[in-house]
Amino acid sequence: EDKVVQSPLSLVVHEGDTVTLNCSYEVTNFRSLLWYKQEKKAPTFLFMLTSSGIEKKSGRLSSILDKKELSSILNITATQTGDSAIYLCGLHGSSNTGKLIFGQGTTLQVKP
Amino acid sequence: EPEVTQTPSHQVTQMGQEVILRCVPISNHLYFYWYRQILGQKVEFLVSFYNNEISEKSEIFDDQFSVERPDGSNFTLKIRSTKLEDSAMYFCASSRDSDTQYFGPGTRLTVL
To answer: Do A95 and B102 touch (CB under 8 A)?
Structure first.
């Protein structure tokens, strides 16, 4: 059964810090891994990763996939209070219907 | 920018009542999903829908649940006889090609 584990479960940092969030997975047939940011309600899409070693970047956020280690990291540099959210890792794995399996999420709090 | 919309934002119902949650996916998308998130827990897959039929459903999606795309724009989730444990946030998502999924703002369902 496909599985996603995120770490840490929660993190408190101060503005300006850099954070690294981890996502590990177990899958029979890997298709893609997606990162989402969940603030008050809907998860909003950040990145989709399909190939190992290719960094995706958007402003202060970046993410990379390591298929050998069955993991991905999400980096946020120069954090701001607006980065406070739950970050979700979703695995598009063995199912070919698009079903996403999510981890528990990492709750990030950025203090001023 | 096109987005997924959901109505209502909050639904309160009595146990045993039927509820219909409504979603309008992004217009050129072909794959549609429902997920739920019980307070403090993971986002869980319920069902995927493509080409006017269910392509996959989870164990949670029992006979009390049904989905429909009645008119080419709306996508609905019906719960026939609600239970207390159905209280959760229900998210609709859509994607063009079963890869990147975009989520709606959710409907908070409270069953009393």
So the answer is: no
